[in-house]
Design goal:
Layout: E1 11-25, E2 40-51, E3 57-70, E4 73-89, H1 93-122, H2 135-149
Helix pairs in contact: 1-2
């Protein structure tokens, strides 16, 4: 039997994990510590991917931004960009989208959650425990939105 028809071996390796950017601000401290703790929480999440110069290597990042307010005063703002370098090889083009858009961010998010929690506690505030995120559902929504914006057969205008 010929080996020419054998699909390439799939490889997935997280080569490096790192905090790319971190910020913690308490613009109204120390007076904010005497306020009644009834926070309003705003949570934003973004992911980014870029191919690196070396073939089959990708930098994937997840940015978590949490703003906590008490009435109209900001108690704190924390932002963490957790990144990783992943070697992804042997996957079809159809498989690469979910790997880069869902699987890798799902691997990174727990590290970002931990960094956010540590920063908030070190800032003197009650723990901020972020709920898990379903990156598969977020990726599916992203794909659906792209399909609605650019339906098959539609001509793109340059």
């Amino acid at each position: 039997m010929s080996e020419q028809n054998t699909p390439p071996e799939k490889q997935f390796v997280m080569q490096k994990l790192y905090v790319k950017d971190v910020s913690f601000e308490t613009p109204n401290s120390p007076t904010i510590f005497s306020a009644k703790w009834e926070p309003k929480i705003e949570f934003n999440l973004a992911s980014n991917a870029q191919a690196l110069l070396q073939e089959d290597l990708y930098e994937i990042s997840v940015t978590v931004t949490v703003t906590v307010k008490l009435e109209n005063s900001t108690a704190y703002l924390v932002e963490v960009c957790q990144a990783g370098i992943f070697m992804i090889k042997g996957f079809t083009d159809q498989e690469m989208g979910p790997m880069i858009g869902s699987y890798c961010p799902g691997v990174l998010f727990p590290y970002a959650r931990e960094a956010v929690s540590d920063l908030v506690i070190k800032g003197g505030f009650p723990p901020m425990l972020l709920a898990p995120v379903n990156f598969d559902a977020l990726y599916a929504q992203h794909v659906q939105k792209l399909q609605e914006e650019h339906p098959p057969g539609a001509k793109a205008l340059n």
